[in-house]
């Protein structure tokens, strides 16, 4: 099923004198593809109306004739789409949502999502950038999303790399004689999975892994530093780039 994470951003004019200036942000996810970021600026009566417009735009960009689940943390938006709203502006936007779904033959599902979810945070940032007319940086292409799972109670770390049309996972077992911490080793495995010319967007790297990657000389002399330097030479040789997001405290 296709999924869209949506958010709206509204300026009430109290501080800027620009009441009504709004923006919407969307993270659209379709099977086999990397997330698509969509955003735009608009004039709206309130934040709920801006977020309802985000739902409409998600429907316009989603595949025709396929089901779509829209995720939002806004209960008023969910209620307006399901039952209408006493607010004229919100009611009009909610009607537009239902009409768009019907016109494009999309079975619309609604779900409440926590603001803390990664894609919700991205949608929120996109909406704010649109309202403030700031440029939102789209994910570089070609790129891959990497998730590092290294919970302390596990005997191994798991590296999951997702690029368009492909998902690759690798298990990193705990080796007693490994000179690198398990979370650092997981990052190096992710680097080895990258394709030449690819950008890796890495989530949940540990603070230690990020610190040592950015400055390998912090590592103890010997094998640990050699492994780090070899990995950095590998990405330089193959034109691979790394970006870190959602850094974890686990070492």
TrEMBL record:
> For the region Disordered, what residue ranges are annotated?
127-147
Outline the extent of the RNase H type-1 domain: 1-132
A Pfam family that this protein carries is RNase_H
Q: Which GO terms describe its molecular function?
A: nucleic acid binding; RNA-directed DNA polymerase activity; RNA-DNA hybrid ribonuclease activity
Please indicate which superkingdom the organism of origin belongs to: Bacteria
Q: Does the keyword Oxidoreductase apply?
A: no
Instruction: Spell out the InterPro entries in the cross-references.
Output: RNase_H-like_dom_plant, RNaseH-like_sf, RNaseH_domain, RNaseH_sf
Keywords of this protein's UniProt record, alphabetized? Nucleotidyltransferase, RNA-directed DNA polymerase, Transferase
* Record protein name field: Reverse transcriptase-like protein
Q: Origin organism of this chain?
A: Deinococcus psychrotolerans
